[in-house]
Structure formats: C-alpha cells, structure tokens
Amino acid sequence: MVTAVEFLNYTFMQRALLAGNMVGVIAPLVGVFLSLRRLSLIGHTLSHVALAGVALGLFLGFFPVYTAIIVSIIAALAIEKLRRDYRDYAELSLAIILAAGLGLATILISASRQSAGIHSYLFGSISLVGTRDIYMILPLALVIIAVILKYYYGFFYLAFNENEAWLAGVPVRALNIVFMVIVSITVALAIRVVGTLLIASLITIPVAAGIQIAWSFKSTIWLSLFFSLMAVNLGLIFSFYYNLAPGGTIIMAGVVILLLVLTGKKVWLLFQQKI
C-alpha cells in the first residue's frame, strides 16, 4: 500500500529535501535585497553564467558545481565592476556578462564529451543529489545566512539608496562585492535541485508573493521564506510522485502560490470596500 509519506523512505529524496530546503531559504533571502534594489535580472544573468561553469566542469572532468561556483563568483565581480563603469546604463553590465556566459557555455557544451549530462543541470534532478552535494550545500548555505545576518543593516541601506548609504558611512563598495559573491554562490548551489535555467525564478517569485501582503521589510523576508519553502517542498513531492522535472515543478508551485496570493489580496480588498 502506497502511503502519503512514502517519499521519506528513499535516501535520495531525503537528500533532495534537505538540499532543496536549504536552497529554499537562501534564495529568497538574497532575492529580497535583489528585488528591492531592482536588480532581479542579476539572478537571471548569473544562472546562465553558472551554466558555463557546469559546462566547464564537464569539459575538464571536475565536479560541475565546483566550477559553477568559481565561474559565477568571477562573473558577479565582473558585473559589479561593469555596473560602476556604466553607472547610468547599469543594465548593460548584465547584458554583457549574460552574452559572454551563454557564448562560453555553448562552446564548452559542444566540445565536451559528457554534454549528455547537461540536462540534469539545466532543470534539476532529485535523484542526482548526492552526499557530496549535501556536504557542499549545507555549510555554504549556513555561511550565506551568517553573512546576511552580520551585514543585515548594511544590505538594508543598500536596498533602498546606495548614495544615502554611502553618506551614512556604510562601506558601499565592500558590501556590494560581498553581496554579489553570496548571490553567485546561491545560484550555483541551486543547480542540482532547481537547475541553472530556473534558479532566477526561485529567487524572485516567492519575493513577489511576499511583497504583495507584507507590512514591513522583515515581514517581506519571512513571507518570502515561507512561500519559497512551500514551493520547494510541494515541487519536490509532486516531482517524485508524477516523475516530473523538479526544477519546473518547484517553479510552477511558486507561480500557483503567487496567483493565489494575488487573488486572495484582490478578494480581501473587494471585501473591505463593501464593509
């Protein structure tokens, strides 16, 4: 007899849930600050650059997530440098790095003898989340959480106005670099669970839902975390029972949650008007 919690009996699902929930925490954490700074496309750009890192790992015979982290960090630092050089046209930095990342990924995938394995890194694979992934995701995720807690108020100032933060004595340049590094690591860590093409959605969609009903900055963070974890767990469970791609299932769960939040808010506002 199949039980509702049958998935918990499988070791690979236990690892996938642990890795997925860690990613489900750090993705909206960085996503809140990215969204409020109107830099959501950075996640999209770095996800495509991470694909180049995966392709490089497959080409060289290294564990792809390691190379994805390294390449993503380099790209994040390059984005920050170009963002300062093109201060009035900051989006150009994203377009430049995105183009370079996709171009490099295409070349490396075509040159790699193991290009067939790229599919699991594009869309995620719960069956391939191994012990090595857990040993890497867990400590790095904890480091990211610790960094955000330590520099919370600095990131808070940067999220609203960099110039005022600078006038207030906040080390803007240093914090921007630190923030870009943790964003790039977050993107790379999510590869196994969500995939390179969909991690940007996990960074932004729960935040979009949280912003709709939040009453403060901290409530935005907590609501985003709640919606993200709900989407990750529902997505992994549905992908297990219906043999679906976990990345796409997680993102669609997030989209459904966002639609429910928007609908519920609209209904509540209409109800308030009638009272």
Structure keywords:
275 residues; mainly alpha; ABC transporter involved in vitamin B12 uptake, BtuC; 12 helices; 79% helix
What can you tell me about this protein's structure?
By secondary structure, the chain is mostly helical. It has a domain of 192 residues: ABC transporter involved in vitamin B12 uptake, BtuC (Orthogonal Bundle), CATH 1.10.3470. Helices cover 79% and strands 0% of the residues. α1 packs across α10 and α2 runs parallel beside α4. The model has no long low-confidence stretch (mean pLDDT 86).
Question: Would you kindly provide a brief summary of this structure?
Answer:
The protein has 275 residues and is mainly alpha-helical. Helices cover 79% and strands 0% of the residues.
How many DSSP-defined strands? Answer: 0
* CATH class category name of the domain at 9-200: Mainly Alpha
The proportion of residues forming helix, as a percent range, comes to: over 70%
Q: Whole-number average pLDDT? A: 86
Q: Regions with pLDDT < 50 over 5+ consecutive residues?
A: none
Report the C-alpha radius of gyration, rounded: 19 Å
Share of residues in strands: under 5%
CATH topology of the domain at 9-200: ABC transporter involved in vitamin B12 uptake, BtuC
Question: What is the number of helical segments per DSSP (H or I, 4+ residues)?
Answer: 12
- The assigned CATH architecture of the domain at 9-200 is Orthogonal Bundle
Shape: globular
Largest sheet: none
CATH superfamily of the domain at 9-200: ABC transporter involved in vitamin B12 uptake, BtuC
Distance between the termini: 50 Å
Name the structural class. mainly alpha
